[in-house]
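Dear support,

I submitted the protein below through the web form. The confirmation email said the job was done, but the results page showed an empty box. After a refresh the structure appeared. I'm attaching both so you can tell me whether what I see now is the final result or a partial one.
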Amino acid sequence: MTERTREAISAIIKAYDVRGVVGSGANEVDESFVRDTGAAFGKLMRGEGATNVVIGHDMRETSPQLSMAFAEGVNSQGLDTVSLGLTSTDELYYASGVMDCPGAMFTASHNPAKYNGIKLCRAGARPVGQESGLKEITDDLIQGVPVFEGAPGHNSRKDVLQGYAEFLRDLVPLDIRPLKVAVDAGNGMGGLTVPAVFQGLPLELEALYFELDGNFPNHEANPLDPANLVDLQHFTVEVGADLGIAFDGDADRCFIVDEKGEPVSPSAICAIIAEHYLDEQPGSTIIHNLITSKSVPELVQEKGGKPVRTRVGHSFIKAQMAEHGAIFGGEHSAHYYFADFFNADSGMLAALHVLSTLGSQDKPLSELAQAYNRYEASGEINSEVADQQGRTAAVVEAFADRAASVDKLDGVTIDLNDGSWLNVRASNTEPLLRLNVEAKTQDEVEAIVDEALTVIRS
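What the results page shows now:
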C-alpha cells in the first residue's frame, strides 16, 4: 500500500464512512488501501464473533474491482464473504439484516464520478462510525493489520434483489388507488431497484435516467442540490404524474416533488411518514435531527407521540433509534430510518410510505403536503471560514439580545424570542460553517440569514 500518514488516512476515513477520490496517491482510494481496509474490518468483526461479511457495490466504474479487493482483505482474516454485485445501499442493509452479518457497501453516494468509498455496518445493519469501529480500523492501517494464522475465508455470490423488494412491499399498506409516478434515478442504483420494488403495484412508472452509469451523464445524483431536481420537476408535469421521486446515487435517499413539480421538503415528508406510523401505533417515539422543521416534533406531540431530538448524522440517528425504541427517524437531508428495517435508512421505503399516504385518499400531493408546511426555511447555507469556533461564537453574541435559549447539541442552535431559530455547525471534514434558519415567513428567514452571514463571513 502507498505509505500514508494518519492525517492522510483520516482524510479518507471520515466520521461515518470511508470516502475519497480514486487514485494511487497518499490521500486517495486504491485497491491496495481498500484491501487493507477489508483486512482491518475483517479483524474487527472476527473479534466480535462474525464469520462472514456481505458486500455490495454501486454502478461506478471502479466499484467492482474495489469491492473484490475488499473481499480479499476480509477473506485474509478468515471470514467468508458474500458478494451481492450491483446493489443499492438499503439493499445491502436488508442483506445485513436478514443474513445477520456485517456488511460493506461500495459507493460514494451523491459525490461525483471520481469518488468512491465504503459504508460499513455490523450484523443487523448496525452502524460503524468513528467511535464505533472506524478509529480502530484507522489504527490498524497505521500500524499494519496483523497476519491471521488460520485458514482464509472464501467468497461466494448471491442475488437478493427480489427478496429485498418483497420485504419492503410487506412493510407498507399498498392497497391504494392507481398512481402515475415519475422517477429520476439519476443514472444511479434506483434504476435497478425501482422496477423490482414497484412490480405488481398499482403504479404507472415514468422512468427518467434509469441507465446505470457511474459517470452521471445527465446530472449529479445529488437531489439535495435544487439544480439536480429541475429535470424531474419538468418531467413530472410533462407526463402528468401524481408525483415525482428522485433518488441519489446509491438510492438510500429520496426527494419528492408534487404534481405541479414543486419540491416537498424533507421535513414535510418526515411528518407525513411519522403521522402514518403514529396512526398505526399511537404513543410511539419518533427521532428527528435538530435541523428538521419544528413542525415535525409539533405534529408528533399532537398525535400523541414522543419526539426525540438528536444530532445530524446516520450513526447518531441509528443509535438513538435503538436507545429509545423509536419506530421512525428523519433528517433534513432526506435520510429516513425505520425500526422495521433494522433501524436503517431507506429511500425506497420512504417513497413507499409517501405513495401509501397519497394513494389512500383523493387529494393531490400539493394539497396534502401543504398541511405539513407550517414554517419557512432557508435550507443549508455553507460558508468557508478559517476560524469556525470564533465565527460561531460571534453569531451567538450577535443574537444574544433576542435569544430565548442557546444549546450546543450539534454546533449552536439559537431559539429566538419570536419563535424562529438558527443553527450554525462546523463541517467534520471541511473548513465550512453550515447555517440553517427557520421562521414563520420568508421575509423573516431572509433577514436572519443576511444578519448571520454578515457575521460568519466578516
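Response: this is the final, complete result; the empty box was a page-load delay. The chain has three domains: 6-159, 161-374, 376-456.
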